Amino acid sequence: MDGQTIERYGAELFAAWRNRVPVAPLVEREPDLSIEDAYRIQLDFIARRVAAGETIVGKKIGVTSKVVQDMLGVFQPDFGQLTSSMICDEGAPIDLSGLIQPKAEAELAFVLKEDLVGPGITAADVIRATDYVVPCFEIIDSRIRDWKIKIQDTVADNASCGVFVLGKAKGDPRTLDLAAATMTLEKNGELHSTSTGASVQGSPVNAVAWLANTLGELGIPFRAGEVILSGSQSPLVPVVDGDELVCTVGGLGSCRVTFTGTRAP
């Protein structure tokens, strides 16, 4: 795909994000779109957000668990970059008017104290480089109309990043069994789902190592201080005004998020 076409789709996704108006699936218009070109579109999209004043604060892996893959019809992980405007404070309601078609997912976030530069990163390297882990919610939000996505669409669309909330409970990955730890998700006071970290590529640590190596092949390092979202351990939960979600990780603690307002039409 030539550079002009890459820039056209990057500009289209940036406009969709800024105006909260979804676009037709890219793969419908570009049947031969490769993941490599999709990532080039993502980089253009993100560059436009950075030029508008945002900064890169981390990375994310998505579509890691079977339950989410089955729900979206995407059967391999995707990846994206987190920016400063995506950060939401725990305890402050998330305003749905800034989103298009939001869905919440509960997961584990890693906050790094050292750089990780793939390829060649192992699970042990991830644990050594991690300062702490926290329970979190990511509110994903596709700029592709009606969530009709293939892997190329979601990679180009920055892995459907919306916003995210980090819990205040911090844990040491050297003392926690992140694969065995149970995560419960409650919606409006009722149990919605349960899972363990093993649902994410055998362990959230494995998922972070995979992402470090995948982005390393593309020349993108993890930097000290960055937040790495390791992938959903829950089914995707559509959210509306007044909803409250709480995820709790055994041995670690909880993260709570509430929603207000009406999503973009």
Describe this entry's structure for a reader.
There is one protein chain. About 25% of the residues lie in helices and about 30% in strands. The protein is α+β, with helices and mostly antiparallel strands. The chain has one domain (about 5-260): Fumarylacetoacetate hydrolase, domain 2. Strands 1, 2, 3, 5, 6, 7, 10 and 11 form an 8-stranded mixed β-sheet that branches. It has a 5-stranded mixed β-sheet with strand order 4-13-12-8-9, with no helix packed on it. The longest helix has 17 residues, at about 5-20. It starts with a helix and ends in a 5-residue tail after the last strand. The model has no long low-confidence stretch (mean pLDDT about 95).
List keywords for this structure.
single chain; 265 residues; alpha+beta; Fumarylacetoacetate hydrolase, domain 2; eight-stranded mixed sheet; five-stranded mixed sheet; 7 helices; 13 strands
Instruction: Label the overall shape.
Output: globular
Residue stretches low in confidence (pLDDT < 50, at least 5 long) are none
Please state the CA-atom Rg, rounded to the nearest Å: 17 Å
Largest sheet: 8 strands, mixed
Question: Approximately what portion of the residues adopt beta-strand conformation?
Answer: 25-35%
CATH topology: Fumarylacetoacetate hydrolase, domain 2
Total count of helical runs of at least 4 residues:
7
If classified by CATH, what would the architecture be?
Answer: Alpha-Beta Complex
Terminal Cα separation, in Å?
32 Å
Order of secondary-structure elements: HHHEHEEEEHEHEEEHEEEE
Number of strands: 13
Structural class: alpha+beta
The helicity comes to 25-40%
Whole-number tally of structural domains: 1
Mean pLDDT: 93
- CATH level 1 name: Alpha Beta
CATH superfamily: Fumarylacetoacetase-like, C-terminal domain
